[in-house]
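Sample intake sheet
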Amino acid sequence: MSRTAYSFRFIRSQSARWLIISLGFLAGIAQAVEVRFEPVAEGVYAHIGDMGPRTLANEGLNANIGLVVTPAGAVLIDSGATFASARKIHEAIRRVTSQPLRWVVNTGGQDHRWLGNSYFKTQGVEIIAHAQAEADMRNRGGEQVEGLRASLGPLTQGTVPTLPTRWLAKPDERLELGGVVFEFKYRGGAHTPGDMLVWLPQKQVLFSGDVVYVDRLLGVLPFSQTKPWLATFAEIEKLAPASIVPGHGRVTDLRTAQADTRDYLLALRAHMKKAVDDGVEISAAIKSFDARPFMHLLNAAELMPGNASRTYLELERE
Protein backbone atom coordinates (compact mmCIF):
# COMPACT_ATOMS: atom_id res chain seq x y z
CA MET A 1 0.00 0.00 0.00
CA SER A 2 1.36 3.44 -0.91
CA ARG A 3 2.04 6.02 1.80
CA THR A 4 -0.66 8.27 0.28
CA ALA A 5 -3.25 5.49 0.39
CA TYR A 6 -2.26 4.61 3.97
CA SER A 7 -2.54 8.25 5.03
CA PHE A 8 -5.97 8.51 3.45
CA ARG A 9 -7.16 5.38 5.24
CA PHE A 10 -5.78 6.66 8.56
CA ILE A 11 -7.49 10.03 8.18
CA ARG A 12 -10.74 8.35 7.17
CA SER A 13 -10.60 5.99 10.18
CA GLN A 14 -9.90 8.88 12.56
CA SER A 15 -12.75 10.90 11.04
CA ALA A 16 -15.08 7.93 11.48
CA ARG A 17 -13.93 7.55 15.09
CA TRP A 18 -14.67 11.19 15.93
CA LEU A 19 -17.99 10.97 14.10
CA ILE A 20 -18.99 8.03 16.30
CA ILE A 21 -17.92 9.91 19.44
CA SER A 22 -19.80 13.03 18.36
CA LEU A 23 -22.93 11.03 17.55
CA GLY A 24 -22.68 9.44 21.00
CA PHE A 25 -22.60 12.85 22.64
CA LEU A 26 -25.50 14.05 20.49
CA ALA A 27 -27.53 10.97 21.43
CA GLY A 28 -26.81 11.68 25.11
CA ILE A 29 -27.80 15.31 24.71
CA ALA A 30 -31.05 14.26 23.02
CA GLN A 31 -31.88 12.29 26.18
CA ALA A 32 -30.58 15.02 28.49
CA VAL A 33 -31.97 15.60 31.94
CA GLU A 34 -35.02 17.78 32.47
CA VAL A 35 -34.81 20.09 35.47
CA ARG A 36 -38.14 20.10 37.28
CA PHE A 37 -38.85 21.92 40.52
CA GLU A 38 -41.56 20.18 42.53
CA PRO A 39 -43.28 21.85 45.51
CA VAL A 40 -42.10 21.01 49.04
CA ALA A 41 -43.94 23.77 50.92
CA GLU A 42 -45.54 27.08 49.97
CA GLY A 43 -42.96 28.91 47.86
CA VAL A 44 -40.38 26.14 48.34
CA TYR A 45 -39.36 23.68 45.63
CA ALA A 46 -36.81 20.95 44.94
CA HIS A 47 -35.37 19.26 41.89
CA ILE A 48 -34.52 15.68 42.86
CA GLY A 49 -31.39 14.71 40.98
CA ASP A 50 -30.35 11.37 39.59
CA MET A 51 -28.92 9.09 42.29
CA GLY A 52 -26.44 7.38 39.98
CA PRO A 53 -23.02 8.65 38.88
CA ARG A 54 -22.41 11.75 36.77
CA THR A 55 -23.30 10.87 33.20
CA LEU A 56 -23.95 12.53 29.89
CA ALA A 57 -27.65 11.78 30.31
CA ASN A 58 -27.93 13.55 33.68
CA GLU A 59 -25.41 16.30 32.77
CA GLY A 60 -23.72 15.89 36.15
CA LEU A 61 -26.94 16.81 37.98
CA ASN A 62 -26.86 13.78 40.29
CA ALA A 63 -27.74 15.81 43.37
CA ASN A 64 -30.73 17.78 44.64
CA ILE A 65 -31.24 21.49 43.99
CA GLY A 66 -33.60 23.84 45.82
CA LEU A 67 -35.63 26.92 44.98
CA VAL A 68 -37.29 29.42 47.30
CA VAL A 69 -39.62 32.05 45.85
CA THR A 70 -40.20 35.24 47.85
CA PRO A 71 -42.12 38.46 47.04
CA ALA A 72 -38.75 40.16 46.46
CA GLY A 73 -37.14 37.52 44.26
CA ALA A 74 -36.07 33.90 44.06
CA VAL A 75 -33.23 32.04 45.79
CA LEU A 76 -31.52 29.00 44.27
CA ILE A 77 -29.95 26.43 46.58
CA ASP A 78 -26.90 25.07 44.69
CA SER A 79 -26.02 26.01 41.14
CA GLY A 80 -25.49 22.68 39.36
CA ALA A 81 -22.40 21.11 37.82
CA THR A 82 -21.77 23.07 34.62
CA PHE A 83 -22.46 26.33 32.79
CA ALA A 84 -24.91 24.50 30.50
CA SER A 85 -26.82 22.75 33.28
CA ALA A 86 -27.01 26.02 35.25
CA ARG A 87 -28.67 27.64 32.25
CA LYS A 88 -31.20 24.77 32.27
CA ILE A 89 -31.78 25.33 35.98
CA HIS A 90 -32.44 29.01 35.31
CA GLU A 91 -34.95 28.11 32.58
CA ALA A 92 -36.69 25.77 35.03
CA ILE A 93 -36.87 28.58 37.61
CA ARG A 94 -38.57 30.81 35.04
CA ARG A 95 -41.21 28.11 34.54
CA VAL A 96 -42.01 28.30 38.25
CA THR A 97 -41.90 32.05 38.84
CA SER A 98 -41.57 35.39 37.10
CA GLN A 99 -39.61 36.72 40.07
CA PRO A 100 -35.97 37.52 39.27
CA LEU A 101 -33.29 35.26 40.70
CA ARG A 102 -31.59 37.25 43.46
CA TRP A 103 -29.32 34.80 45.26
CA VAL A 104 -27.56 31.52 44.59
CA VAL A 105 -26.44 29.62 47.70
CA ASN A 106 -23.65 27.02 47.49
CA THR A 107 -24.14 24.54 50.36
CA GLY A 108 -20.66 23.06 49.90
CA GLY A 109 -17.67 22.46 47.66
CA GLN A 110 -18.79 19.41 45.69
CA ASP A 111 -18.85 20.06 41.92
CA HIS A 112 -22.64 19.96 41.48
CA ARG A 113 -23.04 22.42 44.35
CA TRP A 114 -21.09 25.29 42.83
CA LEU A 115 -19.60 24.89 39.33
CA GLY A 116 -22.79 26.34 37.82
CA ASN A 117 -21.69 29.64 39.40
CA SER A 118 -19.90 30.39 36.13
CA TYR A 119 -23.30 30.87 34.47
CA PHE A 120 -25.06 32.70 37.29
CA LYS A 121 -22.27 35.23 37.62
CA THR A 122 -22.97 36.29 34.02
CA GLN A 123 -26.57 36.93 35.13
CA GLY A 124 -25.45 39.30 37.89
CA VAL A 125 -26.78 37.08 40.68
CA GLU A 126 -25.25 37.32 44.16
CA ILE A 127 -23.61 33.99 45.06
CA ILE A 128 -23.37 33.03 48.74
CA ALA A 129 -21.37 30.34 50.56
CA HIS A 130 -19.62 29.81 53.88
CA ALA A 131 -16.05 31.10 54.07
CA GLN A 132 -14.79 27.65 55.07
CA ALA A 133 -15.65 26.43 51.56
CA GLU A 134 -13.26 28.84 49.86
CA ALA A 135 -10.00 26.89 50.21
CA ASP A 136 -11.69 23.67 49.09
CA MET A 137 -13.19 25.36 46.04
CA ARG A 138 -9.88 26.94 45.10
CA ASN A 139 -7.94 23.71 45.59
CA ARG A 140 -10.28 21.32 43.79
CA GLY A 141 -12.14 23.46 41.26
CA GLY A 142 -9.85 22.79 38.31
CA GLU A 143 -9.67 19.09 39.12
CA GLN A 144 -13.47 18.92 39.34
CA VAL A 145 -13.90 20.51 35.90
CA GLU A 146 -11.43 18.03 34.41
CA GLY A 147 -13.30 15.15 36.02
CA LEU A 148 -16.58 16.37 34.59
CA ARG A 149 -15.01 16.82 31.17
CA ALA A 150 -14.09 13.13 31.15
CA SER A 151 -17.75 12.10 31.57
CA LEU A 152 -19.62 15.01 30.01
CA GLY A 153 -17.29 16.07 27.20
CA PRO A 154 -18.50 19.18 25.31
CA LEU A 155 -21.31 19.76 27.84
CA THR A 156 -18.66 21.26 30.14
CA GLN A 157 -17.94 24.07 27.69
CA GLY A 158 -17.93 27.45 29.43
CA THR A 159 -17.62 25.90 32.89
CA VAL A 160 -14.98 27.76 34.87
CA PRO A 161 -14.50 27.50 38.66
CA THR A 162 -16.18 30.72 39.83
CA LEU A 163 -16.08 31.62 43.50
CA PRO A 164 -19.04 33.04 45.40
CA THR A 165 -19.34 36.81 45.67
CA ARG A 166 -20.39 36.81 49.34
CA TRP A 167 -18.79 34.74 52.09
CA LEU A 168 -20.54 34.00 55.39
CA ALA A 169 -18.00 33.90 58.21
CA LYS A 170 -19.97 33.04 61.35
CA PRO A 171 -21.32 29.66 62.50
CA ASP A 172 -24.83 31.14 62.37
CA GLU A 173 -25.94 33.80 59.90
CA ARG A 174 -29.41 35.15 59.17
CA LEU A 175 -30.57 36.88 55.99
CA GLU A 176 -34.02 37.96 54.90
CA LEU A 177 -35.50 38.43 51.44
CA GLY A 178 -39.08 39.47 50.81
CA GLY A 179 -40.03 38.66 54.38
CA VAL A 180 -38.65 35.10 54.13
CA VAL A 181 -35.96 34.28 56.70
CA PHE A 182 -32.93 32.20 55.69
CA GLU A 183 -30.71 30.84 58.45
CA PHE A 184 -27.29 29.45 57.53
CA LYS A 185 -25.63 27.07 59.98
CA TYR A 186 -22.04 25.86 59.81
CA ARG A 187 -20.66 23.35 62.32
CA GLY A 188 -17.25 22.44 60.90
CA GLY A 189 -18.03 20.80 57.56
CA ALA A 190 -19.11 17.28 56.65
CA HIS A 191 -18.88 15.67 53.21
CA THR A 192 -16.80 18.71 52.18
CA PRO A 193 -15.11 21.29 54.45
CA GLY A 194 -17.60 24.06 53.63
CA ASP A 195 -20.88 22.14 54.01
CA MET A 196 -23.59 24.21 55.68
CA LEU A 197 -27.31 23.98 56.35
CA VAL A 198 -29.94 26.32 54.92
CA TRP A 199 -32.92 26.53 57.29
CA LEU A 200 -36.25 28.20 56.54
CA PRO A 201 -37.82 28.56 60.00
CA GLN A 202 -41.13 29.98 58.74
CA LYS A 203 -41.54 27.05 56.35
CA GLN A 204 -40.02 24.39 58.63
CA VAL A 205 -37.98 23.19 55.65
CA LEU A 206 -34.28 22.38 55.73
CA PHE A 207 -31.93 22.21 52.76
CA SER A 208 -29.17 20.00 54.13
CA GLY A 209 -26.79 19.85 51.18
CA ASP A 210 -24.48 16.87 51.50
CA VAL A 211 -24.96 16.57 55.26
CA VAL A 212 -27.95 14.27 54.67
CA TYR A 213 -28.13 11.33 52.27
CA VAL A 214 -31.18 9.09 52.06
CA ASP A 215 -31.91 6.17 49.72
CA ARG A 216 -28.21 5.96 48.82
CA LEU A 217 -25.09 5.60 50.94
CA LEU A 218 -23.13 8.71 51.80
CA GLY A 219 -19.50 9.04 50.75
CA VAL A 220 -16.64 9.68 53.16
CA LEU A 221 -14.01 11.29 50.93
CA PRO A 222 -10.36 12.14 51.72
CA PHE A 223 -11.41 15.68 52.70
CA SER A 224 -14.58 14.66 54.60
CA GLN A 225 -14.74 14.82 58.39
CA THR A 226 -17.16 12.55 60.18
CA LYS A 227 -16.88 14.20 63.61
CA PRO A 228 -18.12 17.66 62.55
CA TRP A 229 -20.51 15.88 60.17
CA LEU A 230 -22.25 14.41 63.22
CA ALA A 231 -22.12 17.79 64.99
CA THR A 232 -23.88 19.30 61.97
CA PHE A 233 -26.45 16.52 62.05
CA ALA A 234 -27.06 17.23 65.74
CA GLU A 235 -28.00 20.76 64.71
CA ILE A 236 -30.60 19.31 62.35
CA GLU A 237 -32.07 17.33 65.25
CA LYS A 238 -32.36 20.53 67.28
CA LEU A 239 -34.24 22.21 64.45
CA ALA A 240 -36.61 19.23 64.03
CA PRO A 241 -37.66 20.20 60.48
CA ALA A 242 -40.98 19.11 59.04
CA SER A 243 -39.29 18.41 55.71
CA ILE A 244 -35.67 17.88 54.71
CA VAL A 245 -34.42 18.31 51.17
CA PRO A 246 -31.32 16.10 51.40
CA GLY A 247 -28.22 16.38 49.26
CA HIS A 248 -29.15 13.09 47.62
CA GLY A 249 -32.38 11.12 47.69
CA ARG A 250 -36.05 11.93 48.04
CA VAL A 251 -37.44 14.76 50.16
CA THR A 252 -37.55 13.19 53.57
CA ASP A 253 -38.21 13.46 57.30
CA LEU A 254 -35.88 13.53 60.28
CA ARG A 255 -36.45 9.90 61.17
CA THR A 256 -35.33 8.64 57.75
CA ALA A 257 -32.36 11.00 57.73
CA GLN A 258 -31.30 9.63 61.10
CA ALA A 259 -31.54 6.05 59.86
CA ASP A 260 -29.71 6.55 56.55
CA THR A 261 -27.08 9.13 57.57
CA ARG A 262 -26.64 9.60 61.32
CA ASP A 263 -26.87 5.94 62.32
CA TYR A 264 -24.36 4.90 59.66
CA LEU A 265 -21.83 7.55 60.73
CA LEU A 266 -22.27 6.66 64.40
CA ALA A 267 -21.78 2.94 63.73
CA LEU A 268 -18.77 3.55 61.50
CA ARG A 269 -17.05 5.85 63.99
CA ALA A 270 -17.76 3.60 66.98
CA HIS A 271 -16.36 0.53 65.21
CA MET A 272 -13.27 2.29 63.90
CA LYS A 273 -12.54 4.01 67.22
CA LYS A 274 -12.55 0.68 69.02
CA ALA A 275 -10.34 -0.81 66.31
CA VAL A 276 -7.83 2.04 66.60
CA ASP A 277 -7.87 1.90 70.43
CA ASP A 278 -7.37 -1.88 70.36
CA GLY A 279 -4.58 -1.70 67.79
CA VAL A 280 -6.53 -3.61 65.14
CA GLU A 281 -4.93 -3.30 61.70
CA ILE A 282 -6.94 -1.25 59.18
CA SER A 283 -7.80 -4.05 56.75
CA ALA A 284 -9.11 -6.23 59.58
CA ALA A 285 -11.11 -3.30 60.95
CA ILE A 286 -12.72 -2.75 57.55
CA LYS A 287 -13.63 -6.43 57.13
CA SER A 288 -15.12 -6.71 60.61
CA PHE A 289 -17.48 -3.73 60.28
CA ASP A 290 -21.10 -4.92 60.27
CA ALA A 291 -22.51 -3.17 57.20
CA ARG A 292 -25.70 -5.27 56.98
CA PRO A 293 -28.08 -2.58 58.36
CA PHE A 294 -27.06 -0.24 55.54
CA MET A 295 -26.66 -2.56 52.56
CA HIS A 296 -30.12 -1.68 51.22
CA LEU A 297 -28.83 1.79 50.33
CA LEU A 298 -27.80 2.43 46.74
CA ASN A 299 -24.02 2.22 46.12
CA ALA A 300 -23.42 0.62 49.52
CA ALA A 301 -21.23 -2.23 48.28
CA GLU A 302 -18.96 0.08 46.28
CA LEU A 303 -18.60 2.82 48.91
CA MET A 304 -18.36 0.82 52.15
CA PRO A 305 -14.63 -0.10 52.00
CA GLY A 306 -13.43 3.43 51.19
CA ASN A 307 -15.70 4.98 53.81
CA ALA A 308 -14.42 2.57 56.45
CA SER A 309 -10.78 3.13 55.52
CA ARG A 310 -10.99 6.93 55.64
CA THR A 311 -12.91 6.90 58.90
CA TYR A 312 -10.27 4.66 60.47
CA LEU A 313 -7.54 7.10 59.37
CA GLU A 314 -9.57 10.04 60.71
CA LEU A 315 -9.92 8.33 64.11
CA GLU A 316 -6.17 7.71 64.16
CA ARG A 317 -5.60 11.47 63.85
CA GLU A 318 -8.07 12.44 66.58
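Comment: Residues 33-217+224-252 form a domain with the Metallo-beta-lactamase; Chain A fold (CATH 3.60.15.10). The longest helix spans residues 3-30.
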